[in-house]
Amino acid sequence: MKDGLKKLLRQFHLEEFARGQVQSARRLRGRLAMSIGRDARAVSAYFSANRIRKLHLGCGDHVLAGWLNTDFVPGSKEVLYLDATRSFPFSESQFDYVFSEHMIEHVRFQEGLQVLKECNRVLKPGGKMRIATPDLMFLINLCTDDKSRVQQEYIAWSSNQFVPEAPHCSEVFVINNFFRNWGHCFIYDERTLRSSMESSGFVDISRCELSCSDDAELRNLEHESRMPDGFLKLETFVLQGSKPGP
Known about the structure:
This protein is α/β, with parallel strands linked by helices. It has helices spanning 3-11, 15-49, 109-122, 136-141, 149-162, 171-180, 190-199, 231-235, and strands spanning 54-57, 68-71, 80-81, 95-101, 123-134, 203-208, 236-242. The protein contains eight helices and seven strands.
């Protein structure tokens, strides 16, 4: 450290704290460098072992067999580091499929466009992307008077799980929590996500039911078991699009 900065930090008894922060940053850079090297070898091994190449973005703990599973905060050695808001570390036209579930709502709208453009770039001509994300209309529909049984159960469950301080179970507290919690940045409706996909170069965009697809490689991908039965379906809409063929 520079002498002047050291003196200032010592004055406020922060010198040891600052030194610890610098050392932590150095250790983090070292671990990241090791991770990047390990991930590069894992990507090479995946490409060698798989004729059909499939990229899974923001997988969390939902690791899919036969996919290259990635996340901003890898939870295991099976998951590779990838910041989806930056340029992907892959050349153009590397993958046949890209899948993302409940990830794009965690980045800002403009960052979401960047994600979609990168997905299109790394797909082969004719390759497909499947994206599942919370539906803004699901939140709006919680405000209707004639709520379904599943909606009522969802409100009660979400209130008890995530808003225990609420004076009573109410869609108002559930909706406010949904926008603020879990790092959510932008909640899409179908029209907005479809428009974003189109502007990113995708064609033949269609809405699919959860876990269903006309392509066998894109079936049964969503992590439905992470929530009580029917709740992920209530929250989510799924769009599937293709990169134009040659």
